[in-house]
Design a protein that fits this description.
Blueprint (H helix, E strand, L loop, with lengths): L1 H26 L9 E7 L2 E5 L4 E3 L2 E2 L4 E4 L2 E8 L6 E3 L6 E4 L3 E5 L5 E4 L5 E2 L5 E2 L5 E2 L9 E6 L4 E6 L6 E5 L2 E3 L7 E4 L2 E3 L8 E3 L8 E4 L1 E3 L5 H33 L4
Antiparallel strand pairs: 1-6, 2-5, 3-4, 7-22, 8-21, 9-10, 9-13, 9-17, 11-12, 14-15, 15-16, 17-20, 18-19
Length: 262
Amino acid sequence: MIRGLWTAASGMIAQQLNIDNIANNLANVNTTGFKKSRVDFQDLIYQTIRVAGTPVIQGAQVPTGIQLGHGVRPVATQKVFTEGEIKQTDNPLDLLIEGEGFFQVLMPDGTVAYTRDGAFKKDGSGRVVTSDGFALEPELVIPPDATSISIGTDGTVSVMVAGNDQAQQIGQIQLARFVNPAGLSSIGRNLFRPTAASGNPETGTPGLQGLGTLAQNYLEMSNVQVVEEMVNMIVAQRAYEVNSKAIQAADEMLQTANNLRR
């Protein structure tokens, strides 16, 4: 029964982590470019009391053995990179990636981070930046006299300048992709960093080399489905409750054993 206490306790700990993950998904239901996470579980080591196939008499073997597990543990919180819902906006610097790929963002320490959040803005010098002021990479600067901005599906950026009837190309937005995007490390602010598991980034022009295309005046919203998360929360809550009942039952059995009298 002591084994049962620890086994059920591992289940409660695992479901608590599951609830924490669901809460984070629900908290980011309106976060642009957010990708939901899924918790993966794994059973723990087994105690083998009798090995399957053990001979009992000549010519006969035990068809099944006896093994007792010791609970569960979480082994991964995996990002699910399905595409989120599309929202139309009136901001010419709002960009949507239709397909695979990430925007590249230059961090203050000189490294490059990656995001699906295409809600870009201009800073005081005309650079295209994120909401935190991190510059898009490669750097893109909008002229101060630009009257309109046009961004093609291939990432070509053109502007109309006052006094000029011809569109002027000022830059090219490039995207990056990874062999295993689920291996990226989340650092907050809708940003990811590559790891050894994700592989090195492969950069290129939108629409080529397996990269998605761009859509101007659109944003990709979170891929969190509220109904799905609510169902997952109910399942996790019930699993937590049933594990607590197992602890209670084991405790009552131990109490009964302790109260035995000669």
